[in-house]
Design goal:
- It is built from eight helices and eleven strands.
- It is an alpha+beta fold and 226 residues long.
- The strands form three sheets. A four-stranded antiparallel β-sheet has the order 1-8-3-6.
- A hairpin with a 2-residue loop joins β10 and β11 (210-213).
- It is elongated and about 60 Å long.
- The mean pLDDT is 84.
């Protein structure tokens, strides 16, 4: 099987579309594939978004600079996934972040007219696209709420609660401490200190990258949910 078709079949955007149909689609839709090495810029902040970007291979991160010049990681992505869905159809279709590769990446580009054709021809594709946009709005709302928390203890507690909601009371961190510190907008030593505090207070236990929630109510109190 064509490796492009295989990876697309695993992408939520093409869920419900058979491999044979995907072969037909990509004979009718203009597309191209670009490759990137670790650390290369895939899309620059404020560049025009006139193509759908789908990560076929590798990992990326979306970054922004705050007013002081500090670079903050907004999101990390793992293939196969969509890198820019909502921006494509915005009235001001600009990408608000830098998208950077974090290892060897392959990105599929599909022109906007091709996406509109897919939406007309395949209702399941349209549903998948709308679901992705809705999920991203939910994630954005959660991110805004997280950033509204005043202290690092609150931000980390919220992060741990969200991870446990998705993965259970015991889970493995998918990011490094440095990447998590960037996402929370803090320095790595400060984050390590709060992890140690939570472990010392028996709120969590930690072995390597494996975290176990021992006292969920304590985390809820820190975030002021109870």
């Amino acid at each position: 099987m064509n490796p492009i078709i295989y990876n697309l079949g695993r992408c939520s955007l093409f869920e419900g579309i058979k491999a044979g149909e995907l072969e037909r689609i990509f004979k009718n839709v203009n597309h191209r594939i670009t490759s990137f090495l670790d650390g290369e810029l895939i899309e620059e902040q404020n560049s025009t978004c006139d193509e759908m970007l789908i990560l076929l291979q590798g990992h990326t991160k979306a970054q922004m600079q705050d007013f002081s010049g500090k670079v903050i990681t907004i999101e990390t992505m793992e293939a196969p996934s969509i890198l820019a869905s909502g921006f494509l159809f915005a009235s001001k279709n600009m990408i608000p972040v830098d998208i950077v590769s974090t290892d060897k990446c392959a990105v599929l580009h599909i022109e906007r007219d091709g996406i509109l054709w897919l939406c007309r021809e395949y209702e399941v594709f349209l549903r998948n696209l709308l679901r992705d946009m809705g999920d991203r709005l939910t994630t954005l709302a959660e991110k805004v709420w997280m950033l509204s928390l005043n202290t690092l203890n609150q931000r980390l507690a919220n992060f741990l609660l969200k991870q446990s909601d998705d993965l259970g009371s015991e889970f493995e961190l998918k990011t490094t401490k440095e990447e998590l510190a960037d996402a929370l907008g803090v320095a790595r030593p400060s984050l390590s200190r709060v992890f140690s505090e939570f472990a010392g207070e028996k709120i969590i236990s930690q072995e390597g990258k494996v975290i176990r929630i021992l006292d969920r109510n304590a985390l809820l109190k820190i975030t002021r949910r109870i």
